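Entries read sequence, tokenised fold; example below:

***
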Amino acid sequence: MIEAEACINKMESDEVPLSESLALYKRGLELINFCDLELKEAQKEITLLDNAVPKEASDLRNKKS
């Protein structure tokens, strides 16, 4: 995320030539795709873990919320 923010900040400055802005934009898209994939993988893992919890434990966890 830090690298993505750095790309955005650089692109927003008026000192970056068009060719560099395009390269930064491309890198930003790569970072977004990477983060999206990581998030989807984490969501899958959480779903798997939640499905592995016995129903009784799940019911107890929901009652505490």
In short: Residues 2-64 form one domain. Residues 31 and 53 are 33 Å apart (CA to CA). The mean pLDDT is 87. The two ends are 31 Å apart (CA to CA).
